[in-house]
Amino acid sequence: MNETASNDSTESREPNGRIPTASQLEIITHPCEPNTLLKVKAGPGSGKTFTLAHRIAHLIKNRDIKPSEVLVLSMSNRAVNNIQKTLAKILDDQTIKEITVNTFHSFSSQLIDEYSQFYYKDYRHKRLMDDISWRNFSNIFSGKVISLDGESVKGSITPASLEKVLSDIKIGKISVSKAASEFQLNEAYLKLLIEYMNKNGFIRYNDLIINALELIQDSLDQLNEVGQVQLIPTLSRYKVVIVDEFQDMYHQLLSIIHSLVKYPTVNNGQQLKHLTIAGDPNQSIYEFLGSKPELMDFIDYDFPSFQICELSINETFRLTNEISKMSSKIAFGTDSNIISSKGQGELPIIRQHYSQYQEYIFIIEEIIRLIFELGGLIKPADCIILTRYNKEIDEISKIMSTIYDLNFEKLTSGNEWIKTKLHCFLDILYILNKNAGFEFSLLSLLLKIDNKIGNRGRISKLFNEYNSWMKNNQSRSLEDYLNEQLIQDSTKNNKILKLKQIYKIDNQSVLNKINSFLKSIRDERNKIFESYNNAIATQDHETIKNSITPTMILESIFNIAEALGILDYINEPDSQGKHKVQDNKQIEKDHKYILKRWLYSFNSSLECSFANYIESNKESTFLDHFLRNCNDECPIGNQDSIKLSTIHTAKGLEYPIVFIVGLSKFGNKSYWESLLTNESNSVSRDLSKSRLFYVASTRAQSVLYLGSTKPIDELSSEVQQTFTNKLPQLLDSSKLMSNLLTQLQRPLPHEAKLKSGLQSYHIFKSRKQNYCTSSKKFNSIECTSSASVWPMSNFTIPVPISTSSKWRLKPCKVMLKLLMKRC
């Protein structure tokens, strides 16, 4: 290594002493001249995040690039957080704050919010419609009774079709008239519906990218008073654009990259920005979004005048040689060209199972064995179970909870509670805060108050009457209209109210609930914002930041939910009434633990958001911050919980011990069978499945398990060479133990703990053998002998019971109070 490279290498050393490898250093120090493209191919565990972070630091320190001139974009919040954490180890806080590191959608959202008002006179703040909100919107506005300015849909269209139609119209793929003709809809209604959405700022997730692209183009088309282009300041200052996870890009995101790189840069003449992209084509698993593994090669055609350089990171710091070799061989039929820094380990394990249920039991009990036999060296959080579908996660978690009483954590993209019945909490908060489009949240909750047959027809009539009232009350809201109607009713006005014509005598109780609900909204809104206004008067930053807390929000939600009368809705299992009466108790019991999980997900979301809010410098209330960021992922940090995840969600993560579920529900064939029986020269290899398997298997740092319906000797020679069917005996394997101790950075438990762990495991096996069968229900008793070695203080051993107690959340107040204590 020459002297310059040596100095760069020393400079890139992290505080913990880690220095870049030769291939990483070449990427870190590569120039960033205008009109150039650097393509980085980086396999699993190659230190891609480390390399990109150090490249950013190098450009700032050595290439005359200011922090504010660097833009870093990625697909996921997880990747963004990883880059920011790595930057925090090598740069000071002020420098990091000036670097833009964002997901594509978050970057687009901020761009729209910050600059749209300067380019569009009628700009309104946006409300991002999640799947449940959109489903509610489509169900209401695809109905035949509802109207806009006297126009109704006059046709039949599903919510999914309506979303596609509106999206295609927005991007210019289809005209309103053609869409109306194709779906036999009223063209006038369709135009008015789009106008209504724009007026209320309703957008879908993909609209963020579309709107950002429109804004970028419009900023180049509009001239100021002296005939000059009014550039967006943020975009015109960037000189370097870095894109992580490039293999996951699809058409719209490529369009954003193209527009950003070609956007004029101040004082840079006609030259374009430098672009660095990094990714691994073998980990391209988002074909359903439009991504393709060939994109890293195709990007060349978008920048024909660019000087292009392609570099690779040739090492992996995650995988053992055995896991690296197996993953490439089974997935693609090729030898791995990645060198493991960990050296030799143990062969991955493949086990034959006769049913999906048997596989689940094996996985759970193998995790228990590993933890016990090593005296607690391995924590539950060191283990992850990977599935293809969320339904499989639900099945495994039910067994963990009801039979083994084990803690688990389901990893999700975003927060689980938003996709459940607790979404109504979000609607309550939108109304409290009077966010853009909050009247739609009010409509959605009114449907839950009035849950009798014909409620959609009544809500449509209510909306129609409100629209008529709005013609003389332009600046007022649906909440104002309802309050006015109910106040007139309370004064015994002789005028027959529109509400009473809609909600007749048999629905009088609905009006009472609406009245109670609106009163609770007013009370809680006054309480929250009185606290905030009092804090503003102090002019103390810390007091203002803490004026609205998660506890206050939880209390308000419960008070409003109680007045709204939706606690029964939250408590009622979705499948209630669809099964035999004798099954209802079990359905209710299952719903108990699911509801508990949702509630804790909501609480975690509040806590994480509040922590981020306190650290931020933005002038807004916590309530406003939470509504803008409620779907941001929370850190994964519970050491007492086994992790469960789909393969797609686990992408980018790594765990010491990984279990890949192999069997299908019917158990007669493994999903991966075509890969396990194919020879390396087979032309029938399913490359989509290959890449999915490659991503799953390369999450493992030390130990990997895979399920199969066939014994190992009936599988391909590749499988027989790269797998074993023998379970790891951890204490007898010096290679595996060495890898685990290094990976976990924990000392081996002393002999007394190891002995106690083995004794506890024998107790577990003995009791299971004597009492536990799949036909019995189970309760749990304390395992006192294992308390010193089991990482979870509440570890329990399953034993049979004869009856199960009936459970009913009272009406979720108990859980909310519990959550409030934790805030």
UniProtKB/TrEMBL annotation:
Keywords associated with the record: ATP-binding, Helicase, Hydrolase, Isomerase, Nucleotide-binding
Enzyme Commission code(s) on record: 5.6.2.4
Pfam annotation, one family: UvrD-helicase
Domain called UvrD-like helicase ATP-binding: residue spans: 21-320
GO MF: 3'-5' DNA helicase activity; ATP binding; DNA binding; hydrolase activity
GO cellular component: nucleus
Residue positions binding ATP: A42, G43, P44, G45, S46, G47, K48, T49
Gene3D superfamilies reported in the protein's UniProt record: 1.10.10.160, P-loop containing nucleotide triphosphate hydrolases, PCRA, domain 4
Reactions catalysed: Couples ATP hydrolysis with the unwinding of duplex DNA by translocating in the 3'-5' direction; ATP + H2O = ADP + phosphate + H(+)
Enzyme class: isomerase
Family, similarity comment: Belongs to the helicase family. UvrD subfamily.
The protein's name: DNA 3'-5' helicase
